Every structure is written in structure tokens, then in C-alpha cells.
């Protein structure tokens, strides 16, 4: 019997936070929208902190979301930091790379969102544009602070991304200043913005690893997370 609510692990991260009257300290956090969107899709969200050895938790989840956040350390793809590169958290890069490796080893479905998509590429030897406006000549992918502005995306028709979304042209909520540059081994691009920015990647050797540069948790379109929750259900059955 299909489990009613598969468990989807979400990679969280450490940030200095202030809350209440007394508290100001490093906290494990993730925007609430991720948990809400996963719950709305019918799964149980489980936040995974960036701590050493955390990859063992992959055995306890049915699928893994690598979430958005700060920039990946450029050293991971053989580059020096650009002046605009910000929010680097080496411990998060390490923990998420270990989570991804464990998920691939176990055959656990993986969805990379924004930074998570970039990590999918870097993990296989790909590189990133460190500051997209320098490449495309505009700031449309991150036009205002904390505003997830919409833009159009075209999806390759015969792709996992198209099957997951059920269409090949959509408007997506977006907030990023970096993007995939050179693709890693067995990584293909399957969606693009009009300016050529890669908007989705897949692993050609895996049926259920997908990354999107946009933020499905911030939009009104539930299809991607509904598809991913179904993949999590199937994974739960496969691993019983
Ligand atoms: N590089 C981290 C993901 C967000 C961004 O590109 O701005």
C-alpha cells in the first residue's frame, strides 16, 4: 500500500538569527515556504541541519530537496571568488554534497531548488557564472531585494522537467544572481530563460534527479512539488 505521506528531507542551514526578546545566535533555518509547500503537496517535511555526518539521515527520508540559499564556495568548481559572490557557507556545501552523494547511492529522488540546482551541477564537475548580470547584461533574475520576480521559461519537450510540469512554457518566480555555466558530466540543461540562462538540469543517468533555478515553493504552481511527492511515494515503496 502506498504510504499516505512520504517524508521529504529539506536541507536547512545555519544563520545568525534574532528572535523574541532574548535570542541572538546561530540558528538552523529554512524559509517557512519550503515546509508549507511540501506539506501542501501531501508529504511530511523534515528539516536537515548542516552538521557533520548528517548524510546518514538519507536512509530515513523518501526524497531529498536541496534548498536555496547563499553562494556555493567557488573553490568547489576551481574558481576564485568574484567580488559579488556572497553568503558562502563551506559547512553547508560539505553537508549538502554528502547528502547528495548518499541520495544518489541509495537511489533517493532529489530536487534541487535554485542553489540546490547549482549544487547538482557543481557536484558533477560543472561550473557557475558567479554574477549573472555580468553575463546577460541585466538584473532581471534578481531585480529587487527579496522579491521573487516572475519571468518566462521554455522547457525541452522530451525531458523529465516537461513531464514533471506537464507543459513546456511557464512563468516562474525567480531570485538569484548566479547560474549554471559549464555543465557537469552526465548533466543536461532542459529549460532556459530567453537570455540563455539555464533554468533546469537533469542527470542523464538518473530518472529522478532534477534541478530548477526558480523557486516552486514561492509560486502558485503546485505541479512540480506534486510530481516530486509522487516520486517520494514510489521511493518509499521501493525501499521497504
Ligand atoms: N548562488 C546561490 C543561489 C542563489 C543565487 O544564485 O543568487
UniProtKB/TrEMBL annotation:
<protein>
    <submittedName>
        <fullName>Gamma-glutamyl-gamma-aminobutyrate hydrolase</fullName>
    </submittedName>
</protein>
<dbReference type="GO" id="GO:0033969">
    <property type="term" value="F:gamma-glutamyl-gamma-aminobutyrate hydrolase activity"/>
</dbReference>
<dbReference type="InterPro" id="IPR011697">
    <property type="entry name" value="Peptidase_C26"/>
</dbReference>
<dbReference type="InterPro" id="IPR029062">
    <property type="entry name" value="Class_I_gatase-like"/>
</dbReference>
<keyword id="KW-0378">Hydrolase</keyword>
<dbReference type="InterPro" id="IPR044668">
    <property type="entry name" value="PuuD-like"/>
</dbReference>
<dbReference type="Pfam" id="PF07722">
    <property type="entry name" value="Peptidase_C26"/>
</dbReference>
<dbReference type="GO" id="GO:0005829">
    <property type="term" value="C:cytosol"/>
</dbReference>
<dbReference type="GO" id="GO:0006598">
    <property type="term" value="P:polyamine catabolic process"/>
</dbReference>
